[in-house]
Amino acid sequence: xxxIITGVAGFIGSNLAKCLLENDIxxxxxxxxxxxxxxxISSFQDHPLFSFYERDLLNNKxxxxxxxxxxxxxxxxxxxxxxxxLKTLEDNSRxxxxxxxxxxxxxxxxxxxxxxxxYGKNPNIPYHEESDILLGPTTVxxxxxxxxxxxxxQLIQAYYQDKGLTYTIMRFFGSYGPNQNLTWWGGPxxxxxxxxxxxxxxxxxxxxxxxRTFTYVDDTVNGIYRCITNPLAKNEIFNIAGNPSExxxxxxxxxxxxxxxxxxxxxxxxxxxxxxxxxxYEDVRRRVPxxxxxxxxLGFNPTHNLIDGLKKTIQWQxxxx
Length: 321
Description:
The protein is α/β, with parallel strands linked by helices. It contains 8 helices and 13 strands.
């Protein structure tokens, strides 16, 4: 088997590549280092089963000389909190269109990284794969990311219905761990850890009462691996997430990380950053997954609890300093 990974030098891509190589699966990696990092692929860049191409995924000829069995499309523009809604919408659409055309032309299985953000503000918890979608107004650019992924999911399924595209759609819930981006692009864990390492206040967006269910990257990769290798994953949608019982508020997450790093249980010095700082912005108050479908269909089960995952992540990030 040969697996092509877009965004291979990114957080999830690099961890996935390492896992596949350890299982004797050939990997062709693509990245332009706009968000990925060369250090993320340094440990396996000379592996005999690994090939790397520094290319722009917006180029419609990006795959012209590459052949494989599965294309895992991870590269993406994320929530435009600090960037452009136009770039999020246009780049995600163009990258996916190029990936679909390549998969159709070479009869590849497209494994696509979607997001839990597509569930939006739906108040009915937990979110399962058939849950309704409830987004905010179009005047709030924050929803452009979710919309780009909803469009992607619809486009993939339309190509399946009309053109025979083989696909698997994965909705990730709050992945974190080694190789994560150290800015808000990587999520709150990376920022909180870095704040503590630098002796700064922990920056929390909004009131900190919003809750999430996080997933240690090894569990995320385990889910992706099953989506790649198990035939039952084809033409299905799966949530890939940690244990739903570990829902935690962002303020509680900040407190937990501070306690794990400093041993201080008395409290944490938090700087609350109003959403108005980012313009007209909305957040999701709760995000809790159902993982029953992927458990029953593919045998997936998360093996890392939040504390153990955070300890490993803290150690990795501390060692970078």
